[in-house]
Amino acid sequence: MQTIKIGVVTTSDRASAGIYEDISGVAIINVMDEFLLNAKEYEYRCIPDVQSTIESTLKELSDEFKCDLIVTTGGTGPALRDVTTEATLAVCSKILDGFGEQMRAVSLKYVPTAILSRQTAGIRGNSLIVNLPGKPKSIKECLEAVFPAIPYCIDLIGGAYMVANEEVIKAFRPKGA
Amino acid sequence: MQTIKIGVVTTSDRASAGIYEDISGVAIINVMDEFLLNAKEYEYRCIPDVQSTIESTLKELSDEFKCDLIVTTGGTGPALRDVTTEATLAVCSKILDGFGEQMRAVSLKYVPTAILSRQTAGIRGNSLIVNLPGKPKSIKECLEAVFPAIPYCIDLIGGAYMVANEEVIKAFRPKGA
Amino acid sequence: MQTIKIGVVTTSDRASAGIYEDISGVAIINVMDEFLLNAKEYEYRCIPDVQSTIESTLKELSDEFKCDLIVTTGGTGPALRDVTTEATLAVCSKILDGFGEQMRAVSLKYVPTAILSRQTAGIRGNSLIVNLPGKPKSIKECLEAVFPAIPYCIDLIGGAYMVANEEVIKAFRPKGA
Predict the structure, then answer these.
(1) Which residues from chain C sit within 8 angstroms of residue B79, using beta carbons?
(2) What angle (nearest 5°) sits at the alpha carbon of residue B48, between those of residues B88 and B123?
(3) For C78, which of A101, A146, A157 is closest by C-beta distance?
(4) What is the ipTM of this complex?
(5) How many whole angstroms separate alpha carbon A41 and alpha carbon A43?
């Protein structure tokens, strides 16, 4: 089994300043540990809500660290400091609208304010970048919804071969693919 | 309770030329009167389907009149003269795809042509701009679907504090927000 | 009944090189023959996954051949060679997000990887351009989902008047339209 490189990017002015603990980044790592049987190498960053910083972090994790998957948390709402979506759109060559649509559809079962989320996903080089919400509970709900499509997506863009922990979640690969 | 400033923009060549009455703008005001307990100050415009005119109207309502919410009706279809979406995309710094997705999903329960709508929503300064359909019945259906998220959205962008008429509709604000 | 001009564009490096047969283009023609009572004039192209070639083909089918409807198959996934979406976005003056949303929602009933599809639709001149998936089965599922809105869309952009075969599928036109 190949080792999967996963970038985890928490964008938060307060967490990056040490004002509170980053429980969201931890939540992502916990879910990935649970969902994937492969060995995992995490590159973790906790950075302020500054678009240029987020962009350079995403580029570094994709271009230099060759992450197969980069997951962000925070910064996808309508507020002025929410710029993770902008950074993601700026560094990706392809945008996968279906991720945002499905994550909003899932969150909408819990809260009507799900429509305020600008979460998206996209491709940069051989990396899939996915924006997740800020709250650990919502992170898990969203990852459960989109994870089944992630291993095949990463196959298609030339990343490492992910093996899902089928006792917890199933990855889907089309027959003959 | 704060006074809410609401811009209502009907884009229609014929209504703006006085060829028929603008029942859509009236429908929006009626729904807002029903949904919000705050005092309301409406800025109403009925203008032709000209992108530059729509853009300058949206800018004026946001930048000069400081509207918390700007609601448009008309001009979001596939026809050549439908340019309200274009104007909205041009003047907003953030686009909230979830509004369009949810409004289309709701309209799709009634008509399969809902997928032709290019309704969207976005942020300009401290204003939320939302495109609604042209027909009064569809206006109400769409507002019922997205209104619960609007007060919290306007909190996040620094607008006035909306108080929903909970006998008619509930606004949702996350706990601790 | 007017004759409907339909462009059918298969984008596939392998099919265009004759390495395998283009069953997807055939599938589209079969569905259109089944759905539409009008006489049909097909303009069929099988071309490689090269963005500039796809763009010039779409322009030719719209601007010169005056197709009412142009349907593509293939090239909407996340892989590097998938550029049909990019070409569609580049040549259209209006994008109709609702088509992509609904096609992904329909495909999602069958496969969780539906969120990887970047299928979209848009308007160029008097032509509606719709991206379909690559597989015949998925092509039919998607066309069944979006076809009911297509005749009215083409009315709105000044194309020919489509007559659906109501024993198979219903087209929807709003009353008074």
Answers:
(1) 156-157
(2) 15
(3) A157
(4) 0.96
(5) 7
